[in-house]
Task: structure prediction
Amino acid sequence: MHELRTVMFRKVVLLACAATLIMQGCRKDPSLEEVNGPPSPGPTPLSLNIPAWALDSIHPLNLPYDNPLTVEGVALGRRLFYEEALSNDYSLSCANCHRQEHAFSDPRQFSIGTDGSVGRRNSMTIQNVAWDHFFFWDTRALSLELQALAPVTNHVEMRNTWPTVVQRLAQHPEYPRLFEQAFGTAGIDSFRVAFAIAQFERTLLTFDSPYDRYVHGGDLSAMTEQQVRGMQLFFGEARCNDCHAAPRIQDHGVQNIGLGRHEEDLGLMEVSGVEAHRGRFKNPSLRNVAVSAPYMHDGRFATLEEVVDFYGDDVDIADPNLDEHMFGWTLGLVDLDAQERADLVAFLHALTDERFLTNPAFSDPE
Result:
């Protein structure tokens, strides 16, 4: 009997111990949330507001997986776009050479660096770049992020070093917090600066010109009769849309349009070293073209009238690298009289999006 009681006692003890272990195993240990407080919700995803008619399967949006758009990232990028601490002497920001009222281009033929150095190419517009796959006139940057890195250290632009920029931003009373909110973790470096600026630039969308309201909005009063005639020429006899196709009035090509065979600027050839690439430059969008003078990679034309006259009279069709899109000129199909040229210029003015040029969401946050 004594042995039986001993066995029963041991079983009870073992069962009690097992129950205790089970209870301890099920008990919730203090979590990081209980110790450190609730985690940060992280950056807020942001979707671009693009009209359905502006999307097509041929040219899909180019939104990199490693730099998704967020509310906080765009806000930081906007601030950095206007931040003069990126330049060596606090005198230049991205916005100095990319002005909103000029479709984020420079009205000067060539931009001027912090030491007075003059560039050799006109600053391109920044608009609808969420579709683009290469940047700069010679296409040497294969992402918007890589493009954003370059001006800071360029010796004819901001003339700075990235360690200096990072130190300045890290010592700023607000930037460390803004970077953490934008990327979910603390830290500032050159890539995060470029990533944030690229996010902001991808939000610079322009789809509300008189042309858009006329064609896509059904507002027949949005364009004048002359502008309508010019539109018909643009998409017809003048063959402008061979290189500047709707809806973005751009075809994302790198083209030699016959500006001249003896130009010093080699264009894409400077990057590739390939002779066939001599004189090829990125095809820009013609949206807001009336406010983004001067024109061409070297700003050689001051007015739209000069541009149209070039296409009417001066295309070098004997250039061996002339782009195949220019076949209409080689066949002599483009012949514009004075009235047609005036109509074309009038239509180009109908591509101006006043809301884009004055949108406070794109302006200096300060």
Q: What stands out?
A: Residues 1-27 have pLDDT under 50 and may be disordered. Residues 52-205 form a domain with the Cytochrome Bc1 Complex; Chain D, domain 2 fold (CATH 1.10.760.10). The first strand starts at residue 254 and ends at 255. The chain has two domains: 52-205, 210-356.
